[in-house]
Amino acid sequence: MKELFRKVSNKVSAVAGSAGAFSLALLVIIVWAITGPLFGFSDTWQLVINTGTTIVTFLMVFLIQNTQNRDGKAMQLKLDELIRASKSARDSFVGTEDLTDEELAQLDIEFKKIHATQMSTPAMHKLHAKIATAREQRQSLRSQAGHMLNTFLNPGNKNH
């Protein structure tokens, strides 16, 4: 049963997340809206769309949760393998997803201290300077491109 649900949820998730599924849902809504005057915007007409969307939403919640659970577990296993394979990483971090909120808060404090210490090194200052320079260059290029586009779109405008 679990394997069948896994296979079905994978397929349904893939289909439901496609452009075709979105187009079909949009088409259903458009047809429903167009038929409103035909049915006099009756309570039954409204009930049809409400019931349909409620059922689809209810079922999709379980499929999405199943997919997220599997994706999260797979990601955690990949991270655990990277930690295990890295010589400098502490393998005590494998399984941190099972820690309590208080234990996770303590780890967060520890990492913030490590981050603050590393930020004070000359290498980190140099890295941040390079990042800032690159950001300024991108912003300058965007500004120039915007000016050129404005000039192209408004050739008679002398205010650019």
Domain unit count? 2
Q: In whole angstroms, how far apart are the ends?
A: 67 Å
Question: Would you report the number of β strands?
Answer: 0
Fraction in helix: over 70%
The poorly predicted ranges are none
The largest β sheet comes out as: none
Q: From the helix content, strand content and strand pairing, which structural class follows?
A: mainly alpha
What's the average pLDDT? 86
SSE string = HHHHH
Q: Report Rg.
A: 27 Å
Shape: flat
| Binned strand content | under 5%
Oligomer: single chain
Continuous helix count: 5
Itemize the secondary structure elements and their pairings.
Elements: H1 2-16, H2 19-34, H3 43-85, H4 101-119, H5 122-153
If you had to describe this structure to a student in words, what would you say it looks like?
The chain is an all-alpha fold and 160 residues long. The protein folds into two domains: 1-98; 100-160. Helices cover 78% and strands 0% of the residues. It has five helices and no strands. The protein has helices at 2-16, 19-34, 43-85, 101-119, 122-153. Helix 1 (2-16) packs across helix 3 (43-85). It is flat, with a radius of gyration of 27 Å. 0% of the residues are buried. The model has no long low-confidence stretch (mean pLDDT 86).
